[in-house]
Design goal:
The chain is mostly helical. The chain has 5 helices and no strands. About 30% of the residues are buried. This is DUF2231 domain-containing protein.
């Protein structure tokens, strides 16, 4: 699974941020193309968010045994918890977007925009944690992980 988590995560990040940008553009310019773009990107982001969570969980199970009692362990646990929160936030965002697409509501549009901006921040924080695990501690990097065995 180690080779699946990184690309899936990057698709999740790209789809979520692109969907939120489309949502901001739709909120600002009220063009249907932006509304459809937000819907499609956020819809696919939901699927990829859960794939990222589950592939990350599988990788986490292998990595945590090797990094117990290191600073990376706490970051890994926080990354796992935040991963669940991010997946739930993206799912909620996607579901609300579908409802608002089918039955438009200005109040729901504002709520989606606010939730989208919060989700944007969560995605960036989550990516930062994942980056720290890989670049600062070598978690998931084959030569480093083999050296810990």
């Amino acid at each position: 699974m180690e080779v699946l988590h990184p690309p899936i995560v990057h698709f999740t990040i790209a789809l979520t941020i692109t969907g939120i940008i489309f949502e901001v553009l739709w909120f600002t310019f009220k063009r249907d193309i932006f509304n459809a773009g937000a819907l499609l990107n956020l819809g696919f982001a939901v699927i990829f968010a859960w794939l990222a969570f589950f592939t990350g969980h599988l990788d986490e199970e292998k990595a945590e045994k090797l990094i117990e009692n290191t600073p990376a362990y706490n970051i890994l646990e926080y990354h796992e918890t935040l991963g669940l929160i991010v997946a739930i936030a993206i799912t909620l965002l996607g579901i609300l977007k579908i409802f608002n697409y089918l039955k438009p509501s200005n109040l729901l549009r504002v709520f989606i925009l606010v939730l989208g901006l919060i989700t944007f921040v969560l995605v960036i924080l989550q990516g930062n944690l994942g980056g720290r695990l890989v670049y600062d501690y070598g978690v998931g990097v084959k030569p480093v992980m083999e050296g810990l065995r």
